[in-house]
Task: inverse folding
């Protein structure tokens, strides 16, 4: 068994009387593609928000490679190797695809007002290296031909690839994908799956929220299921298909059939 790289212990978040996430303890194994499933309102997106720092828990902890992230803001978590995409991409629409990707690296000298004044040579050098890396990443996600296009003018599926490119600029250890196949045509979905699996072979760990059960059952192992804020199942895709509690959570609908 691979060692855990992302873990939670007793993670809980309430909104008034509602426990959106309740005492969730997980150990995501290094090098896996973990599928996170559950009906609407199960707590999946809230869990992602707790993992990435968009929300802080009422109780419990989050750790990445043994380092406590529980009270760190999202940018610190990204810097430590935890990347995340969103169900609905929101690129900087008027900026080019390339510019969107070049914005991702943190701590650029040119971000500070005084940086270009005091260190113009450093700023130019950083921009050159970042541009070269961004073009390499765009090549990988097949978006280089669109590098100079406004990001708001590309398709929804291409925006999903752009989000992945921006995350890759941070060289993350773990990538959380929120419904990567939602609203994406089948050709781009297969391309995205191929990129995920290639990155996984290179050592990247993935956790994927997805309502497309065929996607989950074909590409994810293990599978984790949530319902009413709690984890109700952890196991293989084959075990998920036959689990009574999981089938009940989906109102009796066959899982992955």
Result:
């Amino acid at each position: 068994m691979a060692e855990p790289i992302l873990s939670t212990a007793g993670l809980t978040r309430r909104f008034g009387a509602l426990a959106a996430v309740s005492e969730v303890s997980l150990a995501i194994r290094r090098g896996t593609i973990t599928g996170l499933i559950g009906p609407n309102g199960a707590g999946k997106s809230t869990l992602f928000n707790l993992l990435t720092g968009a929300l802080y828990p009422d109780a419990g902890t989050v750790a990445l490679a043994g380092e406590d992230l529980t009270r760190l803001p999202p940018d610190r978590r990204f810097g430590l190797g935890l990347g995340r995409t969103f169900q609905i991409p929101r690129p900087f629409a008027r900026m080019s695809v390339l510019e969107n990707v070049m914005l991702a690296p943190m701590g650029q000298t040119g971000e500070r007002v005084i940086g270009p004044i005091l260190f113009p040579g450093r700023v130019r050098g950083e921009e050159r290296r970042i541009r070269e890396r961004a073009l390499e990443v765009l090549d990988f996600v097949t978006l280089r031909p669109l590098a100079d296009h406004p990001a708001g003018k590309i398709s929804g599926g291409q925006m999903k690839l752009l989000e992945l490119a921006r995350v890759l600029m941070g060289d993350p250890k773990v990538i959380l994908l929120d419904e990567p196949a939602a609203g994406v045509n089948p050709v781009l979905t297969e391309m995205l799956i191929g990129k995920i699996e290639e990155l996984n072979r290179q050592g990247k760990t993935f956790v994927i929220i997805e309502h497309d059960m065929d996607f989950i059952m074909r590409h994810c192992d293990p599978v984790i299921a949530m319902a009413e804020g709690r984890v109700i199942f952890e196991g293989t895709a084959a075990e998920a298909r036959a689990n009574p509690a999981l089938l009940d959570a989906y109102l009796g609908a066959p899982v992955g059939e």
About this structure: The longest helix spans residues 120-140. The mean pLDDT is 88. The CA atoms of residues 85 and 177 lie 5 Å apart.
